[in-house]
Amino acid sequence: MEVKELKFLFKLIGKNNYCGKISELKPNSKTKISETQSICRNLCDRELVACSQTVTKIKINSAGKALLNLDANNLPVTTDELKILKACSTEVITPGKTKVTPAEKREELITKLVKQGLITATATKIEQVRLTERGKKTLLEEYNAKGTGSVLSLDLLDNYVRFLRKNLCSGSSQSQITVNKEVNGNGKKPQIKTNGQDTSNGKKPTDEEILQTIIGLDRELGTDNYLPIFHLRNKLQPPLSRKELDDALYRLQRGDKLEFSSLVEAVHYTKEQVEAGIPQDVGGSLFFLMVN
Questions:
Q1: Are residues 286 and 212 both part of a single domain?
Q2: Each residue's pLDDT tens digit in the chain (292 positions)?
């Protein structure tokens, strides 16, 4: 592992829940943000970290151009989608130049058009970065310090020492699980509490409790109100079934308490995590949860 990659990771494990903004993870003060993003992408390719990205430049492709040549009265796109296609029909542009508002809606439509193969995302910007389980295992079990010379600051070394103490001494993970080891006389299994919530009785949470769980997970994982849905499924399935949770999320959306966003690039997530999204008839699956 290169020194700059190691510094990046050591800065990341110093953040709450090993999740932070890309701007906070520069190996040193002189590192350009473009180089930091390149380091992050290399680590993503090796599945040591995962990141959320936003599209910064788009262009139309051949399928999109062919669609624009169809009869205007029979185009299989909405007015705003057509506006995006026309805006990038002659040059590479930033999403803002499409004039589609608000930004959340624009991002969703761009993601949809990319998934449909009508436009191409020519550039993306990394926003949030988190340590993966593979990255954690690498730092705990596989990393060996080599070489001579002082390349790490004491602050970075302190991050690593704290990381080792927390994970090797206590065996903790992102979801703090407390197991009551006492088994009662009738031979029942011990109760298991996850983040203080008793899930052993199978009681199903209300919609409001689901919303509070989303808020709590977002705060715990540092996802900046952009929570991947698989975290919620890991938390609430069971006692809820997949359909029951999906229905509850739709109800929260209809009540203007929650919004969805699609996944632009699935490469930084596992197959199981991507499949945890809510499939749509058109476009990509709903993947991120945002509380209003």
A1: yes
A2: 888 999 999 999 998 888 889 999 999 888 899 899 999 999 998 889 988 888 889 999 999 998 888 877 778 888 999 999 999 999 999 999 999 888 888 888 998 898 888 999 998 888 889 998 888 888 988 877 766 555 778 888 888 888 888 887 644 433 333 333 333 344 333 333 334 344 444 588 898 999 999 998 888 888 778 888 999 988 898 888 888 999 999 999 888 888 888 776 666 678 888 888 888 766 567 888 888 8
**9 is in which domain, residue-wise?**
3-48+132-145+152-167
Q: Which amino acid is at 38?
A: S
Would 183 be classed as within a structural domain?
no
Report the predicted TM-score, pTM, of the whole model to 2 decimal places: 0.53
Gap between the Cα atoms of 269 and 195, Å rounded: 24
Helix, strand, coil shares of the chain as percentages rounded to 5? 45, 15, 35
Cα 237 to Cα 199: distance, rounded to the nearest angstrom? 10
Question: Do both 26 and 114 map to the same domain?
Answer: no
Q: Are 113 and 196 members of one domain?
A: no
- The span from the CA of 257 to the CA of 231, in Å, is 19
Render 58-87 in DSSP notation, one character per residue. EEE-HHHHHHHTS-GGG-SS-HHHHHHHHH
Q: Output the six-digit token pair for 223.
A: 């996802």
**Closest of 130, 156, 114 to residue 3, by C-alpha:** 156
